[in-house]
Amino acid sequence: MKRSARLLVSAATLLLAVGSTGYAADIIEGPSADYCRVVGTSNLVLTDNIVDLKEQVVKLMDESVAAANSSEWINSSRPVFVWASEAKVACGMAYGYLKTNYRDEDTLNKCECFHDRMVEYMH
């Protein structure tokens, strides 16, 4: 009886150790999600005129805020609300940088990417 209990505990420990290791390796070495299908620079980053860029960012931000506040998308099973929320934050950050005349490429790329994802799930 004592031997079978030890054997059972050893087997359970081995299964847990092997299962945990495999799972951890998947997290570390697994493919990362690429939410933006277009690899490279967004159209926002390519805009040279700072006034036009601010207008475009504000437009994307306003559309994202409207979607994030809409009960249609809040109660929807589609992930529009999630992407709208991400877009409004990213576009807000990009606009904040632009107010100081600093063009942060990362937030501009995220703004456009997340907005595009939001629009994609709306249709």
Structure description:
By secondary structure, the protein is mainly alpha-helical. It folds into two domains: 1-32; 43-122. It is built from six helices and no strands. α3 (50-69) packs antiparallel against α5 (80-99), α3 packs across α6 (105-122) and α5 packs antiparallel against α6 (105-122). The longest helix has 28 residues, at 2-29. The protein is globular and about 65 Å long. The termini are far apart. Mean pLDDT is 79; it is low at 11-32. Residues 1-24 form the signal peptide. This is Lysozyme inhibitor LprI N-terminal domain-containing protein. Keywords: Signal.
Secondary structure layout plus pairing:
Elements lengths: L1 H28 L13 H4 L3 H20 L1 H4 L5 H20 L5 H18 L1
Number of helices: 6
What's the pLDDT, averaged over the residues?
A: 79
Return residue spans where pLDDT drops below 50 for at least 5 consecutive residues: 11-32
- CA-CA gap between termini: 63 Å
The chain-level structural class is mainly alpha
Q: Shape from CA axes?
A: globular
- Cα gyration radius (Å): 23 Å
Q: What can be said about the biggest beta sheet?
A: none
